[in-house]
């Protein structure tokens, strides 16, 4: 049984889906130079032991820049290659990725979104307020090759919600390093359902340096 439960101010968290029940999320990445938005459906299609096979289908996707030809071409590419096309991936009940995101019918991998943005890594065992855990994992990026994230359980409410503080620090790929240093980090809160481990919402701020100027923005996710 995959559950989240409270006992003497402690909880355990793991992911639990009802088979074929769809969970839809709105994702928005906002910055000074561009906006990226997604609407994604997630559905459990198979479960064996601690493995969850999940189908993802992007219902809407938009890249908004300066309104020029690049914006038009990018959105046309999204429409032809990603929207209303089923993808799949597999995680374990703690959110570790077992199979990367791939097209369902071909198996060709495609990192069109970060799975761990929607299914964060959960620790095993009991958690109490103030407990932290740290995960380091690879990322698909032109500059960065890994990200180190520290999670801290801030609060558990009476209506089965856990608020988890997140700080992610992206690390440069040394093979791509130039004379200019790049940096990027995300900080904010994730709100999880303690009974299912599933995300209810997330709100993060983005900061860093892209080699020319400071970067700033926000990343938000909300369950429909």
Automatic annotation (TrEMBL):
According to the entry, what is the taxonomic lineage of the organism? Bacteria, Pseudomonadati, Bacteroidota, Flavobacteriia, Flavobacteriales
Superkingdom of source:
Bacteria
Q: Which InterPro entries does this UniProt record tie to the protein?
A: DUF6263
> What is the official name of this protein in its record?
Lipoprotein
Q: Which organism's genome codes for this protein? A: Kordia periserrulae
Q: Name one Pfam family in it.
A: DUF6263
């Amino acid at each position: 049984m995959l559950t989240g439960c409270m006992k003497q101010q402690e909880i355990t968290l793991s992911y639990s889906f009802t088979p074929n029940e769809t969970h839809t999320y709105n994702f928005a990445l906002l910055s000074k130079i561009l906006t990226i938005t997604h609407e994604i459906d997630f559905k459990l299609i198979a479960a064996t032991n601690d493995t969850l096979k999940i189908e993802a289908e992007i219902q809407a996707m938009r890249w908004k820049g300066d309104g020029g030809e690049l914006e038009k071409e990018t959105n046309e590419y999204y429409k032809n290659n990603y929207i209303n096309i089923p993808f799949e991936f597999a995680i374990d009940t703690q959110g570790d990725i077992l199979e990367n995101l791939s097209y369902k019918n071909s198996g060709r991998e495609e990192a069109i979104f970060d799975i761990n943005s929607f299914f964060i890594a959960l620790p095993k065992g009991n958690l109490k307020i103030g407990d932290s855990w740290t995960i380091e994992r690879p990322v698909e990026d032109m500059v960065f090759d890994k990200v180190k994230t520290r999670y801290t359980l801030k609060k558990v409410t009476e209506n089965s919600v856990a608020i988890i503080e997140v700080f992610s620090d992206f690390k440069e790929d040394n093979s791509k390093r130039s004379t200019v240093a790049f940096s990027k980090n995300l900080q904010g809160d994730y709100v999880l359902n303690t009974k299912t481990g599933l995300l209810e919402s997330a709100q993060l701020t983005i900061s860093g340096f892209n080699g020319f100027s400071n970067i700033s923005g926000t990343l938000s996710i909300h369950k429909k």
